[in-house]
Amino acid sequence: MSITSTAAAGTPVCRPSVSRGGRRSRCAVRAQAAGDGGAAADGASSEQKSLEIMRKFSEQYARRSSTFFCSDKSVTAVVIKGLADHKDQLGAPLCPCRHYDDKAAEAAQGFWNCPCVPMRERKECHCMLFLTPDNDFAGEDQAISLEEIKEATSKY
Amino acid sequence: MAWGASLPPPTPPVRHRTAAFALAHFPPWPSNIMSSNGPRAACCVRLVSFHPLRSPPRLPSSQIPQTMAAAASRHLCSATALLSPSAAAAPIRQRVGYGYGSSSARRWAHRPDAASRIRRLTTRSRTARVSCAYSTGAEAITACSWNQNVICSDVPVLVEFWASWCGPCKMVHRIVDEIAGEYAGRIKCYKLDTDDYPQTANSYNIERVPTVLLFKDGEKIHSITGTLPKAVYVRAIENSFLQQ
């Protein structure tokens, strides 16, 4: 016998897509490639750069999608760090909360690159990075500082 | 693993989590301590006995302390409630002879997180058998030890599949560690890094992490994906006890 329960992280509330904030659609916010031709000159600085890119992207995307970070900001910080790591390694911010057979192929395919398709379509982020206000874990913030991220991720 | 020199015959169900409770269940048999060479091996339940071989101090019987250190896994994620704070442990170390086990016990006692491993116990008899059912949170598991620890386990096994830099996994870690403490001896809790052991993750069709699987008699009986309240995990475990 096998029972399966699944968290409804980001309840599938299908709202009509209201064109918030004027002309730009909410899918417009993407992690910028930001000239990653650094050719891994120095790993540390490119790591920092990706972290900053992903941090800014997360803040921006949260605002544009009217979602909020987790009330436990260390979750947010860890996920942003994971996205930044994937961006460094794979060239795309692949969702760190999944298990993939072939990460490079997934990153190229793009379904699970942040913001992933379920997030864009239904505001479902099982990584708990972008939480709709009705989610139990949703906090009040749409901003996170680089220091917060570094502090939270230094523990792991 | 030479911790418990002589384990007591048929032990009562290992549900006790405080040493005092444990003591009530074990007769004070004479026992010896053997040196412990492998304190790193982690186990949810460890039976340890310390026998003050050198003349124990003439204290009122209620003050004769028995201190013990439990072996622990390399990272101590959550500790169960302790009988005594670390402050009590320091003076005790000087007063009690540990017999042959002293070196190892002291070594452990000096570790930074020793406070959570040392327990003080007052006892009526000079020689007390002390059982310490101590959990150190969920252990990491490898693909190699999978068969032995999960499939061949005679108690239900909870395995959390996680990945590095997965935020929700950190939350589930805490829950699983708490559960490991609360159900020490009744179930086993493990964590498996899906990046390190992708074959295992693939064979159980793990897609999203964190995913918690509950095994009983080597069979997957429940799967919990995502971050859910602790009650959900607890309910699954309790159900697994009911299904005989």
TrEMBL record, chain A:
Example of a GO MF term:
oxidoreductase activity, acting on iron-sulfur proteins as donors
Listed under catalytic activity are:
[thioredoxin]-disulfide + 2 reduced [2Fe-2S]-[ferredoxin] + 2 H(+) = [thioredoxin]-dithiol + 2 oxidized [2Fe-2S]-[ferredoxin]
User: Keywords on this record?
Assistant: 4Fe-4S, Disulfide bond, Iron, Iron-sulfur, Metal-binding, Oxidoreductase
Source lineage: Eukaryota, Viridiplantae, Streptophyta, Embryophyta, Tracheophyta
Give the protein's function: Catalytic subunit of the ferredoxin-thioredoxin reductase (FTR), which catalyzes the two-electron reduction of thioredoxins by the electrons provided by reduced ferredoxin.
Query: Which protein, by its recorded name, is this?
Result: Ferredoxin-thioredoxin reductase catalytic chain, chloroplastic
Q: Name one GO biological process term.
A: photosynthesis
Region span, Disordered? 1-21
Q: What class of enzyme is it?
A: oxidoreductase
Query: Which InterPro entries does this chain map to?
Result: FTR_bsu, FTR_bsu_sf
* Assembly information from the UniProt record: Heterodimer of subunit A (variable subunit) and subunit B (catalytic subunit). Heterodimeric FTR forms a complex with ferredoxin and thioredoxin.
Primary gene name: LOC123142907
Which coenzymes or cofactors are required? [4Fe-4S] cluster
* Family recorded in the similarity comment: Belongs to the ferredoxin thioredoxin reductase beta subunit family.
Which superkingdom heads the taxonomic lineage of this protein's source? Eukaryota
A Pfam entry, by short name:
FeThRed_B
Q: What is its EC number?
A: 1.8.7.2
From TrEMBL, chain B:
* Gene Ontology CC annotations of this record: cytoplasm
What Pfam family is a match for this entry? Answer: Thioredoxin
- Source species: Triticum aestivum
Determine if Disulfide bond is one of this entry's keywords: yes
Q: Which UniProt keywords apply?
A: Disulfide bond, Electron transport, Redox-active center, Transit peptide, Transport
Using the record's annotation, list all stretches that form the Thioredoxin domain. Answer: 132-244
Molecular function per GO: protein-disulfide reductase activity
Q: Does the keyword Transit peptide apply?
A: yes
Name of the featured protein: Thioredoxin domain-containing protein
